[in-house]
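Forwarding the complex inputs:
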Amino acid sequence: MDNESQYSGYSYKSSHSRSSRKHRDRRDRHRSKSRDSSSRGDKSVTIQTPGEPLLDAESTRGDERDDNWGETTTVVTGTSEHSISNEDLTRVTKDLEESSPLECKRFIGPALGGCLSFFALVTPLAFLILPQVLWRDALDPCGTPCEGLYVSLAFKLLVLLISSWALFLRPPRATLPRFFVFRCLLMVLVFLFVASYWLFYGVRVLEPREKDYRGIVEYAASLVDALLFIQYLALVLLEVRHLQPAFCLKVVRSTDGASRFYNVGHLSIQRAAVWVLDRYYSDFSVYNPALLNLPKSILSKKMTGFKVYSLDENPTNNSTGQSRAMIAAAARRRDNSHNEYYYEEAEMDRRVRKRKARLVVAVEEAFTHIKRLHEDEVASSPKHPREVMDPREAAQAIFAPMARAMQKYLRTTRQQAFHSMESILTHLQFCITHNMTPKAFLERYLSPGPTMQYQQQNGRGRQWTLVSEEPVTSALRQGLVFSLRRLDFSLVVTVTQLPFLRLGEEFIDPKSHKFVMRLQSETSV
Amino acid sequence: MSFVPGQPVIAVVERIEIKKLRHGDNLILGFSIGGGIDQDPGQNPFSEDKTDKGIYVTRISQGGPADEAGLKMGDKIMQVNGWDMTVVTHDEARKKLTKKKEDVVRLLVTRKTLEEAVKHSKGKYPRP
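Prediction (whole assembly, two chains):
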């Protein structure tokens, strides 16, 4: 902080108007924040272009701005959050640049998984069809037992198909930085399995032109059984194992301390990270950089203290003793910055409440100006012509009286960056259409909602960096700490193990509930 | 006046002798007692230790025999005629005090001021 100019808060207050001082404070705050954000990395390194331009509080847009950085920022070890399911084999070559034509890369994974499962499903049919096609005449006739096997084969294939669709063909939610171990394991297993079956088939059936068709059908049926069991394994490993809670994760946002506790099961670090981020978007209130720091005027008081420089080459004991005394005297001087903070907080609260009251009244009044037209009401008598409006026009009509109060309120609570006029109008239109009361309309503005509320849907997804000292495919355990970083804030996650519960039993006889009065008698003797 | 269970109770006591007064058919002493091991010790306003279940003097009628003998309100009665009063029920205490055959009850009572007086006087004497 040495290169910041020191000014004494008192002169500032007296000579400049209040609003310009606030504006300056806001700018100073952002300047220092952007300089302080530095890159650090344990396993992953992120390089940022030096500082954001002087952000005016009016132009701060939460998460949205970060996505536009993709075109101009070079990020090392970027991991984009959305997309790709069974991709991981392609993750061997890590992409170093996050560029917008990332779309095709998302779908390589599902494509690969799809091919493999298609291959696996078609194999039994191929086993059955090939002998028929190639050496039909030489085959032993196979009557009822074969037909029974055909039926069972058909149903098992159908079940496999439906359950594969239900379990695996879902749009993927995240790209993980490293292999998803279980998924890779399963894919390798399926591939080896089917390949070995084909090998055996090729050597034992195709070569010698096996005549026993029933054996071939049974062989195909056994393959389908085995595939069903592998799918059961997949179900347990991917979906069921992590359902029983085993760890408690504490997630803290680094900028303002918002925190939550979650219970998760046995997951690897990267899967746990995806899990936490899912919950982050709907549980945490939106990150508002404008609400962060104490005003400069309060903090600067501390900095105006004595600075003692010793100009002698050999400082004698006397001088150090003297300087120490001066420093002690400065420290003992009463530090009133906490007082200022308290009063400023109280003042801020009062201001917000006043504006909120005005807003609520304005909105209530505005809503009384329109009412819904029912179909059976007669469209208008010539004496009282009424203009029939659609929701958009109705919204525009009643927006004008409340616009000013709304704008003032949003400015006071520093939310104006999140709500544009257009979005307020759209929301008003939405509320009118659904017969909502003014209170329902205001719910969105009176309390900061979860981050999900402010997201724009674009296909590119959100960029998060997982920072961890352990390899990210290792399992969670007690005492682990990792963090999820975004450009201007990060979430620090601490893992604790849920305690082992020793549940005992105690039987209480329902007849054993008895009571007596408390005695306090006084006897005269 | 607090005690440690299992250890002997040590207290500074005052010996008070009260002659019963004949009032009609009864012999009265002129004070009321409260407390006892079957009572709720938390409601005793005179005890220092709210788990003390001893017998306390809760009221003294003015000009009665107890008042004249020097009994004060809030005194804890330790013995009555040699009978222990520290671990008795309320009713037993009453019985020990109202025996028809006895004219005189000799009480050992303790109060905080006694302890303090002894400490105070101890302090004055030079150590031998």
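Residues 120 and 194 of chain A are 6 Å apart (CA to CA).
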